[in-house]
Structure formats: structure tokens, C-alpha cells
Amino acid sequence: MMTSKVIKNLFLTFNFLFFVGGSIILGLSLHARNNQVDYQITDELLPAISLLIFVSAVTLIFGFLGCCGAIGDNRCLLALFFVGLLAMFLTMLAVGALGAISRTPAAQEVVKEQMKQLLPLSEQPKEVQESFQKVEKTGFCCGLFVGHFDWGNSSVVPDSCNCTDTSRNCTVLDSREIYSTPCMTYIMTWLDRVSTSLMGTAFAFGILMILGMIFSLVLLCQLRRSKKSII
User: Fold this and answer.
1) Residue 114: inside a domain, yes or no?
2) What's the whole-model pTM score?
3) How far apart are CA 117 and CA 34, in angstroms?
4) Are residue 131 and residue 79 in the same domain, yes or no?
5) Looking at the predicted structure, is the pLDDT value of residue 44 above 70?
6) Based on the structure, what is the number of domains in the chain?
7) 75 is in which domain, residue-wise?
8) Helix, coil or strand: residue 170
9) Which of 146-151's residues contact partners 24+ apart within 8 Å by CB, and which partners?
């Protein structure tokens, strides 16, 4: 049937795009998880990143199964593809929900409360201090809430607070210029951008999954009608 060939070709094209999209998102998600400091990934966002890694990896597998089912007219593989997409679609809804929740004032207050536990910064383990100093250099900021005071006394304020960009807000501390902007502003901006990216990715992937489920159902119905006509 001509319609069956058209649907099959569309389905195969969809699976190819699905496979490519899954590969790209898997690579980006793994890179973001392995570079949490650079991407300002907090513990609250890690579950969403992990879900993206899981969904994109499973997407590659089901994309392969969908192609095999369409090429071989295998109803079992097509049914498995549909069920898998449905499960991933529900998972992507969870990713979108996590992204939306992270933007609420209540979630932001939770992040701030956890950040307050790091004060004073000079009393934190060396690894934590080094990670936060990277944030200060990247965000052109110093401290968390009240600038250099979050480090304790002025003698322990690290060089990462030094004002290397005179176009930023800076202040003088013990004969040296340091950034006066607290890093919490930078962190919350990054959180907002990451949550927006998560919701956008979940929405785009959700649309693709809905199309995939529609194509697989159409193919399944056509295969069922063809089997009945043969009988």
C-alpha cells in the first residue's frame, strides 16, 4: 500500500532524527554532569540532568528498535517502541516539571538556605573553596550574599575576588580592588537559564515522542489490517 510506504518512510526519517537528537542531548547532558561547576549545576538540578541522560540513552535503543520494526514489519517491535516512547514521554514530563519547580520562589529559597550553610566560606573544605573560587572568577563576583564578608575576615579573601574587569562593580579592600557583587545573583541567573533549557528540551522531546507514537500506531493498525486481509 502506498500509504503504508509513505508512513514507513516518515517513521524511518523520524527515528533517524530521534537517534541524532538523542545522541546530541546525551553528549550535552554528560558534559554538563561532569562539569557541574562550569554549568552551575546544583544538587537540586542533578536529578533532572540524570533523567535527561537516561531518557536520551534509552531513546537511542528504542530508535533502533523502531527502525527494525518498521523495516521488518514486526508488530512486536513496533508495540515495544510505542510503550517505550510512552514511558519516556512521562519521564520527560517529570524533567519539565523539575525545571518549572526550580524556578519557583520556594525552590529558590531552599537553594539560598542550603548556600547559607557554606558560610563562612573560609571554613569549608579545600575542594569546596576551590570550586566556589571558580564560580567567582566566572561570575565576576565575590562571596555569596554580602560580598567578601562571606569569606570571614579580609585576610582570607581569595584572589578569585580580585577585580580583573573594571567594567564590573568593584570595591577597595586592603589596597586591592575586589568584586562587590555577591555570587548569589550570578548563581540564581544560571539556575533560571538551566531550568529554561530543561523545560525547552522536555517540550521539544515530548513533541517528537508524540509524533513517534502516532506513526507507530498507524503502522501497527496497517499491519493488523494487512494480516486480516490475508486471512
Assistant:
1) no
2) 0.55
3) 24
4) no
5) no
6) 2
7) 2-107+190-230
8) strand
9) 146/182, 147/171, 147/178, 147/179, 147/180, 147/181, 147/182, 148/173, 148/178, 150/119, 150/120, 150/121, 150/182, 151/120, 151/121, 151/122
